[in-house]
Each structure stands twice: as structure tokens, then as C-alpha cells.
Automatic annotation (TrEMBL):
One of its GO terms (molecular function) is citrate synthase activity. Pathway: Carbohydrate metabolism; tricarboxylic acid cycle; isocitrate from oxaloacetate: step 1/2. The active site is at H247, E306. NCBIfam families: PRK12350.1. PROSITE patterns: CITRATE_SYNTHASE. Belongs to the citrate synthase family. GO terms for cellular component: cytosol. This is Citrate synthase.
């Protein structure tokens, strides 16, 4: 009897120097850095450099100017954001624009792809509201420029740091579903844009990168701490999953949740905002964890990255339709590094299936 590993659970499909997810200890290491450390001190540009180091010969020591120029290159495609595309969900509009980028393998191609989700997301959000897209300012940091292109005003240093912390926290995470998809595409020797598009399409679903929008829906529907227990119990009775909880690998708390909670607390101190929302979220989190422990005693279900993603991005004034786009803006760096690593291995990814369909028909 052939054993099928549903969802490839437990299957090791790549060796990587990029990141390590220790699900028992609740640790994420990104190229030798604990995620909490990296998120507290690195700009997104530094994390991109860390990930791409060794995968391109011509990587400059400071990536900020090159990433700024890459935003300008990506912005040239915003002209294709017509009314029909602007009416789609921002994620779909961003993905359609990204498909227009060259499918090459150079550092220039890689940086354009890493810069593009921020540029296209900002343009799609503005056009949806009937506003003009704002051109990038290559002199700004990626995070500060991302916020400026969305809002049209300069962000505070605290806000840019909070977005940096988010983008760094999610820049890579082992062989998650979207990274695996990117590696599969790269293994066929398709270009980097194809790998990113495979990753983008896989990130979209609510079991992966699409969860933080529904976290906000949950908080809005619960409304007040006293409603948390009955609301959550009713959702589970109806067979729903609680968004922002559970993970394939982590059996303890997702360390990224704490990295983002720390960023959120720094932001709320500098902006003087959010205590009410945070108090509600903490009450919902406590109630959800209690209920999940009671109802699923055999399956440790803890808070995952998406719960605090939702709170942090909301505190930055971003609308829920933008959350998965912003996730992609961070994770694209990881997809590109993994695609390069897969290309270097030279091996096509091609698993097997076991046939359980009807036997061949006998010849008449
Ligand atoms: N709420 C309620 N029950 C859950 C949840 C949840 N959030 N997560 C898992 N379970 C239950 C399942 O119903 C199942 O129970 P059963 O055995 O009684 O049927 C059991 O736990 C195992 O679930 P699986 O789907 O087999 O576990 P898997 O490892 O495939 O799931 C996943 C991981 C998809 C993330 C899951 O926990 C989930 O759906 N979470 C909610 C969505 C979410 O937050 N996604 C973001 C994940 S982080 C990221 O991708 C960046």
C-alpha cells in the first residue's frame, strides 16, 4: 500500500540556506538571525540584501538606491492600470500588472519584481478611490515610500519603522505553500517573474496569506470583549476556522506574532493610537486560545502571524483589501531568493501520485 502524505505534510523537499522554521520551539531563523532581532533592527532593504546575498554577483552593499530605482521602473507599468483593472480587487490588479514585467533572471529583474508589489498596490488602492497614482520617490526607504504612495502624505518615522518590521518579519518562512510554488516554477527554468506569479497566486487563499482581512471581519463582528466567547463558539459550531490561529508547522506560538505585537506596541506609543482596538484583540485572542484548547485538545492551535498582521496593518491605516498585497510585498524577496536557490540546484521538482481511478477498460 503506497502512503500518500496529504498536503505533503512532513515531506522535506528542499535544502535551503535561507530560513529555518522550528515548530516545536517556536523559532524562526532567517539567514542566521532570529526573526525578532531582525524585525527590530533591519530595514526591508537590509533583509532583501540578506536574502539575496550569494545569489547575484553584482549585489551592491546598500540596496536602498537600487530598490528606489526599481520602484521607478515598476511605476512605468502603472499606465496599464485601466478602469476595468482598477475595479478588480487590489490583489488581482497588482498581480495582473506584475505579469507585465520581464521574466528574466538578472539582479535588475529581481529588484523590479521585489519593488513592484508596493508600487502596484499603492496605485491600485488609489485608483479604486478615484485618485491618481503617486510616483515613487527613489530617495526614500521602501517602507516610507510605500506608505507615501498609498496616502499621498509623508509617513512618520515610527510608521515607516512599523512597516519595515512587518515586511522583514514576513520576508521568508521556510517552505511555506507560496514559496514551494515559486520553487516549482523556478525548477522548470521559467524566469523570476513566473516564480513570483506562482507564489502570488498561492499566497492569495485564506488558509495562507489571505487570512488577515478576515481577522478584521472577526474583530468587527465581535465588537466588544463580552461577545468574544459566544461569537467564537458559534463560528466553530458552524464548522468555521478561526482566522489567525493554527499553523502547519508551529505547535507553539508563532514567533512572528510576537515580533509584530512588539512593532504594534512601539507604533502605538509613538502614534498614541490604538489601545481600544488592541484591548479587544487581546480579549478575542485569549478567548480563542481557551476555546481551541478545550475543543481541540489533541491539536495545539496557537496564534499565528496573521492575527497581529491584521492589527498592525490596520493601525497603519491600510484597508483590509490591501493586507495580502502588503504580505506579498514582503514575501516576494523570499520567493526570489528561493527561486535562485532552486535554479542553482538545477533539479526539476516533479513528485509522483498514486493512481486510484478505474482500471484500464478491456478492449472490445
Ligand atoms: N480554527 C479552528 N480549527 C482549526 C484551525 C483554526 N484556525 N486550524 C486548524 N484547525 C483544526 C482543523 O479543523 C482540524 O481539526 P480536525 O482534525 O478535528 O478536523 C485540525 O485542526 C487540523 O487542521 P488541518 O487543516 O489538518 O491542519 P493544517 O496544518 O493543514 O492547517 C492551517 C494549517 C491551514 C493554517 C489551519 O490552521 C487554518 O486553517 N488556520 C486558519 C487560517 C489562517 O490563519 N491561515 C494563516 C496561516 S499563517 C500563514 O500562512 C502565513
Amino acid at each position: 500500500m503506497v502512503q500518500v502524505s496529504a498536503g505533503l505534510e512532513g515531506v522535506i523537499a528542499a535544502a535551503t540556506v535561507l530560513s529555518d522554521v522550528d515548530g516545536q520551539a517556536g523559532r524562526l531563523t532567517i539567514r542566521g538571525w532570529a526573526v525578532e532581532e531582525l524585525a527590530g533592527r533591519a530595514r526591508f532593504e537590509d533583509a532583501v540584501h540578506l536574502l539575496l546575498d550569494g545569489f547575484f554577483d553584482d549585489l551592491p552593499a546598500d540596496l536602498a538606491p537600487a530598490l528606489g530605482q526599481a520602484r521607478v521602473r515598476a511605476f512605468a507599468e502603472v499606465a496599464a492600470l485601466d478602469g476595468a483593472l482598477a475595479a478588480r480587487e487590489p490583489y488581482d490588479a497588482m498581480r495582473a500588472l506584475l505579469a507585465r514585467l520581464p521574466d528574466g533572471d538578472s539582479l535588475r529583474d529581481a529588484l523590479t519584481l521585489i519593488a513592484a508589489p508596493a508600487v502596484f498596490t499603492a496605485a491600485a488602492l488609489r485608483r479604486r478611490q478615484g485618485q491618481e497614482a503617486i510616483a515613487p520617490d527613489p530617495a526614500l526607504s521602501h517602507a516610507a515610500d510605500f506608505l507615501r504612495m498609498i496616502r499621498g502624505t509623508t509617513s512618520t518615522e515610527g510608521e515607516a519603522r512599523a512597516l519595515d518590521a512587518y515586511l522583514v518579519t514576513v520576508c521568508d518562512h521556510g517552505l511555506n505553500a507560496s514559496t514551494f510554488a515559486a520553487r516549482v516554477a523556478a525548477s522548470t527554468r521559467a524566469g523570476l517573474a513566473s516564480a513570483v506569479l506562482a507564489g502570488l497566486s498561492t499566497l492569495k487563499g485564506p488558509l495562507h496569506g489571505g487570512a488577515p482581512g478576515p481577522v478584521i471581519d472577526t474583530l468587527d463582528a465581535i465588537g466588544a470583549a463580552d461577545n468574544a466567547v459566544p461569537w467564537l463558539e458559534a463560528a466553530l459550531d458552524a464548522g468555521e476556522r478561526l482566522m489567525g490561529f493554527g499553523h502547519r508547522i508551529y505547535r507553539v506560538r508563532d514567533p512572528r506574532a510576537d515580533a509584530l505585537k512588539a512593532a504594534l506596541s512601539r507604533l502605538s506609543k509613538s502614534a498614541g493610537a490604538l489601545p481600544g482596538r488592541l484591548a479587544l484583540a487581546e480579549a478575542v485572542e485569549r478567548a480563542a486560545l481557551d476555546i481551541l484548547r478545550r475543543r481541540k485538545p489533541d491539536r495545539p492551535l496557537e496564534t499565528n502571524v496573521e492575527f497581529y498582521t491584521a492589527l498592525l496593518l490596520e493601525a497603519l491605516g491600510l484597508p483590509p483589501q490591501a493586507f495580502t498585497c502588503v504580505f506579498a510585498a514582503g514575501r516576494t524577496a523570499g520567493w526570489i531568493a528561493h527561486a535562485r536557490e532552486q535554479q542553482a540546484s538545477g533539479k526539476l521538482i516533479r513528485p509522483q501520485s498514486v493512481y486510484v481511478g478505474p482500471r484500464p477498460r478491456a478492449a472490445a
